[in-house]
């Protein structure tokens, strides 16, 4: 679930909650903290895979015509 803050600005982009959680997950992985790698490299190695799949599904649902009736996936 996304971490919400009172003084935080509202992000109006699609899939903002999943995007925020994916970024936070990547920044907290030992791959970034201990090994000093780029978050993109850690993502390619397979860290935070479930959030990456959720973000992909949310973005893909924006292109799906059925999403107009069902709504976007994600939060």
Automatic annotation (TrEMBL):
Pfam families reported in the protein's UniProt record: Pet191_N (PF10203)
GO biological process, one term: multicellular organism growth
Domain of life the protein comes from: Eukaryota
Keywords recorded for this protein, A-Z: Disulfide bond
InterPro entries: Cyt_c_oxidase_assmbl_Pet191 (IPR018793)
The keyword Disulfide bond appears for this protein: yes
Cellular component GO terms held in the UniProt record: mitochondrion
Function text: Involved in an early step of the mitochondrial complex IV assembly process.
Family recorded in the similarity comment: Belongs to the PET191 family.
Protein known as: Cytochrome c oxidase assembly factor 5
Organism this protein belongs to: Gopherus evgoodei (Goodes thornscrub tortoise)
């Amino acid at each position: 679930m996304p971490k919400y803050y009172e003084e935080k600005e509202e992000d109006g982009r699609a899939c903002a909650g999943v995007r925020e959680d994916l970024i936070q997950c990547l920044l907290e992985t030992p791959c970034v903290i201990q090994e000093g790698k780029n978050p993109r490299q850690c993502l390619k190695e397979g860290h935070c895979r479930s959030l990456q799949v959720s973000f992909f599904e949310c973005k893909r649902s924006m292109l799906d015509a059925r999403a107009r009736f069902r709504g976007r996936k994600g939060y």
